[in-house]
Amino acid sequence: MTHDGFDFLDGAWTVRNRRLVDFLDPDSGWEEFDGHTTGRLFWDGRAHVDEIVFPSKGFRGLTLRLYEPETGEWTLNWSDSRTGTLCPPVRGRFAEDGTGVFEGTDGYAGRPVRVRFRWSGIGPDTARWEQAFAPGDAGPGDGARWVTNWVMEFDRTDG
């Protein structure tokens, strides 16, 4: 199944989260917690917004996804209720196999990092999102040491 947009993410989902305690230390241990999200499409599917709630963590996140017709890419823009600031976007697209890869630059704990989001396992009622960081200002394709630090497993709650 192929996807070129975020139509699959429209609606309500439960989300099982697993994330590293320290996003750059693969030995820091994993924490698990639940969340739920509701997403909505705009602009004939060229924009998607969702809010995710993490009840046990006491914060919410908001993602704005925008399709750029000129580049054929999506930008994914994240903010959360703890800071109220917009993180630098990641940018990318979906491949023929339906997997989406989106990369950008940001900071973590005062250090520059490369950021990668990966969408996979997309079906009518399931999806998987992974976040990985690579330390430093490594560019795409330069052999960066990626640390997968957050995995979300999505299950649809609205049929």
Structure overview:
With 159 residues, this protein is mainly β. The chain is 0% helix and 58% strand. The protein is built from no helices and ten strands. The protein has strands at 11-20, 30-42, 47-54, 59-68, 73-80, 90-94, 100-108, 111-120, 126-135, 147-156. The protein has a ten-stranded antiparallel beta barrel with strand order 1-2-3-4-5-6-7-8-9-10. A hairpin with a 5-residue loop joins β8 (111-120) and β9 (126-135). The radius of gyration is 15 Å and the shape is globular. The mean pLDDT is 91.
Task: Summarize the helices and strands and which ones pair or pack.
Layout: E1 11-20, E2 30-42, E3 47-54, E4 59-68, E5 73-80, E6 90-94, E7 100-108, E8 111-120, E9 126-135, E10 147-156
Antiparallel strand pairs: 1-2, 1-10, 2-3, 3-4, 4-5, 5-6, 6-7, 7-8, 8-9, 9-10
Features:
mainly beta; 10-stranded antiparallel barrel
